[in-house]
Structures are given as structure tokens and as C-alpha cells.
């Protein structure tokens, strides 16, 4: 049941500190601060390329992983949505690693893409939340999220635990390829270990996020902006808002704004800027400034120092706890979930069962 929560989605958002911790425990040894994957039927060091395929929110988890795998494991990564990938006839180098990300493990397009990758002699890894699912059965290796059953149609805890698994896989690949020494691995493993308490601190910001939701509920369109690993979080925030509140929302890479969408900005369009204090913060900050200069109504998600820089100029903000930039996309997924949730509650839509949507899309 829902316990004391008004909706399954709310319960699942609040389970995140626990299930992130459970998922970490299955991949990280806290004593040695090193990652261990289940026994693999192939050599991680010999992987020439990674291909990631998924749909919806699971696809955005894959987008974050692309940034991590390129930067930390120095691997070439290709990513696509499953409905496109399955018909592209992509040429895949033999012995590549093909990663399929799916909460249900049953999404028909992702499953078809998995079978295509099999025909291309890839090593197949499935990141699924349902261990008995079809994808789990057909994969060479299953990297399970330990999120527990997800009932709400809007994916929340499956997403953050997918990111945890992908972060651990990144560390394992980086180590195997000689791109990360023990000290580097320990630093990033420690950053991951901070997530359960940091995510609990984000949940304590729920009143601030509920207040921000009242600024969004009347909007017709909302823009979400981010750069680097915050870009997929902006995309995910926009998807959450669309599916739950039926408000049109777009996630955009901050730096792409001046190539078109900046024309949309006026005092009727809230702009949610996902700006963790990472290596791209200053770039995002200057895009935020451009939006302000055009009369944009900016809502900022950053840490206290980031928010303080724009206080008095922005319409609203929520301050996140300090966290290592590596794990920022995992933490910043939570405020965009809560924001969309509260907009939906204010609008009175059916939070756990939005119109026209199915929890798993098993027909094409
Ligand atoms: O079960 P899957 O992870 O394969 O599902 C993929 C998408 O259908 C799913 O993430 C969908 O986008 C959610 N409704 C998003 O909240």
C-alpha cells in the first residue's frame, strides 16, 4: 500500500535514500571503497565501444552515463532511443558492450533493440528493476537496480537507482581500462556513499519545492535548462512535468538556447535552471543571466552558494546540499521529481495514473 503517503509516486520519491543505499550496497564494498560487479562472461578491459539503448526516463539515465563513460572511463559511447535504434541497422563493432536500461525489463522497443544487438555479436547487459523480466532472461549479465516495485507510472526511484548502477559500471570500466587509480576510485565511491544522506536532505526541502510548484501550475509552457550531466536531468524534469501535469515542457541544453528557444522567453514562461556546482556551473550561470536579461522567470536548482549569486534576480530557488559533482545528476533528479509532483497535485491530475499512459509499453 501507500502507507501514509497520498500517492504511490510520493512514497516512491521518499524511498530514494533507502533504495539508493540498497543499490550501492550491492556494488560497492564500503571497507575497500571499491566497486565489484557480478561475475562477467567477458573482459571489461577489452570493450571497444558502449552502445546504450532505452526509452523515456530510462533513456535519460543512459544520457547521464554517456557523459560519465566518456570522461571517466574514456570509452566511445553511442546512445539512442530504442524505437529509433531498432530500425537503424546500426553497424556495431564485434565484442562491444550493449547496455539496455529498463525499469520493467519488458518495454517492447528496448527488447527488440537487445535482440538486434545480439545479432551483432555484442555483449549484452541489462539494467532492470524486475529480475524475472524478459530482458533479464535474455541478457548476458543483469545489473539489477534494488528499487523494489515501482507502482507510479512516473518513474522516480527506478531512475535514481539506474544512475547508481551506471555510476558503478563506469568506475568498474574505468578501473579495468587503467583510467582510474585506487585513490580516484575511492574518491568517487565516497561521493556515491554520500547520496543516501544527501538525498534525505533534499526530501526535507519539499516545502520549498511545493512553494515553487505554485509558480509553475498556471504556466502553459515551461523550459528546463542544464549542461553536461545536468542536461539529461533537465530533459527528465520536463518529461516528469509533461506526463504528470499535462503542461508543455521542454528540456534543453543551456548552450543551445540562443539557437532558437530563447525566442520563447517572456514573463509567462518559467525557466527551471538545473545548475549544480560542477565544472560547467559558470557556463550555465551565464545562460541564466541571458534568460534574466530577456525578462525570463527563472527558478534555480543549485547549492546555497549558487542560489545566493542570483538571489533578488530570480523568481525562486531550492538549495541542494553540497555534493561531489560526479553524483550531482543523481541528487538533482529528486527536486525535479518533487516539483512535477506538486504541480500535478495543485492541478488535481491523476498523479499515479496519468491519462493515456501505461506503466510498461509492451506493444509497439
Ligand atoms: O520500463 P522502462 O524503463 O523500459 O520504461 C521506459 C519508459 O516507458 C518510462 O521510463 C516512461 O518514460 C515513464 N513513464 C517516465 O516517467
UniProtKB/TrEMBL annotation:
Active site: 359
Catalysed reactions, semicolon-separated: D-fructose 6-phosphate + L-glutamine = D-glucosamine 6-phosphate + L-glutamate
Top EC group: transferase
GO biological process, one term: UDP-N-acetylglucosamine metabolic process
Keyword Membrane in record: no
Keywords: Aminotransferase, Cytoplasm, Glutamine amidotransferase, Repeat, Transferase
Gene Ontology molecular function terms on file: carbohydrate derivative binding; glutamine-fructose-6-phosphate transaminase (isomerizing) activity
Domain SIS: 40-179, 212-354
Keyword Cytoplasm part of the UniProt annotation: yes
Entry GO terms, CC: cytosol
EC number(s) recorded for this UniProt protein: 2.6.1.16
UniProt superkingdom: Bacteria
Biological role stated in the UniProt entry: Catalyzes the first step in hexosamine metabolism, converting fructose-6P into glucosamine-6P using glutamine as a nitrogen source.
Quaternary context: Homodimer.
Name under which the protein is recorded: Glutamine--fructose-6-phosphate aminotransferase [isomerizing]
Amino acid at each position: 500500500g501507500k502507507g501514509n503517503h497520498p500517492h504511490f509516486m510520493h512514497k516512491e520519491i521518499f524511498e530514494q535514500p533507502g533504495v539508493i543505499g540498497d543499490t550501492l550496497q550491492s556494488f560497492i564494498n564500503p571497507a575497500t571503497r571499491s566497486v565489484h560487479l557480478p561475475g562477467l562472461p567477458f573482459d571489461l578491459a577489452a570493450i571497444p565501444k558502449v552502445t546504450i539503448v532505452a526509452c523515456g526516463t530510462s533513456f535519460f539515465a543512459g544520457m547521464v552515463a554517456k557523459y560519465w563513460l566518456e570522461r571517466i572511463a574514456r570509452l566511445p559511447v553511442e546512445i539512442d532511443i530504442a524505437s529509433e535504434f531498432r530500425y537503424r541497422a546500426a553497424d556495431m563493432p564485434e565484442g562491444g558492450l550493449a547496455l539496455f536500461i529498463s525499469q520493467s525489463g519488458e518495454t517492447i522497443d528496448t527488447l527488440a533493440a537487445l535482440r538486434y544487438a545480439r545479432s551483432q555479436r555484442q555483449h549484452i547487459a541489462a539494467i532492470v528493476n524486475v529480475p524475472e523480466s524478459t530482458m533479464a532472461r535474455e541478457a548476458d549479465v543483469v545489473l539489477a537496480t534494488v528499487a523494489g516495485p515501482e507502482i507510479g507510472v512516473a518513474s522516480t526511484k527506478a531512475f535514481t537507482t539506474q544512475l547508481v548502477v551506471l555510476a558503478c559500471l563506469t568506475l568498474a570500466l574505468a578501473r579495468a581500462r587503467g583510467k582510474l587509480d585506487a585513490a580516484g576510485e575511492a574518491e568517487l565511491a565516497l561521493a556515491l556513499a554520500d547520496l543516501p544522506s544527501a538525498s534525505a536532505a533534499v526530501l526535507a526541502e519539499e516545502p520549498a519545492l511545493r512553494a515553487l510548484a505554485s509558480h509553475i501550475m498556471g504556466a502553459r509552457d515551461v523550459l528546463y535548462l542544464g549542461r553536461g550531466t545536468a542536461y539529461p536531468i533537465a530533459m527528465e524534469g520536463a518529461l516528469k512535468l509533461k506526463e504528470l501535469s499535462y503542461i508543455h515542457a521542454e528540456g534543453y541544453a543551456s548552450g543551445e538556447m540562443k539557437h532558437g528557444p530563447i525566442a520563447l522567453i517572456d514573463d509567462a514562461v518559467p525557466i527551471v535552471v538545473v545548475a549544480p556546482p560542477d565544472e560547467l556551473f559558470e557556463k550555465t550561470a551565464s545562460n541564466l543571466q541571458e534568460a534574466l536579461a530577456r525578462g525570463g522567470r527563472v527558478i534555480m536548482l543549485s547549492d546555497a552558494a549558487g542560489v545566493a549569486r542570483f538571489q533578488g534576480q530570480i523568481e525562486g530557488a531550492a538549495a541542494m546540499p553540497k555534493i561531489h559533482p560526479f553524483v550531482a545528476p543523481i541528487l538533482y533528479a529528486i527536486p525535479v521529481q518533487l516539483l512535477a509532483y506538486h504541480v500535478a497535485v495543485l492541478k488535481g491530475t491523476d498523479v499515479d495514473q496519468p491519462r493515456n499512459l501505461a506503466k510498461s509499453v509492451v506493444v509497439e
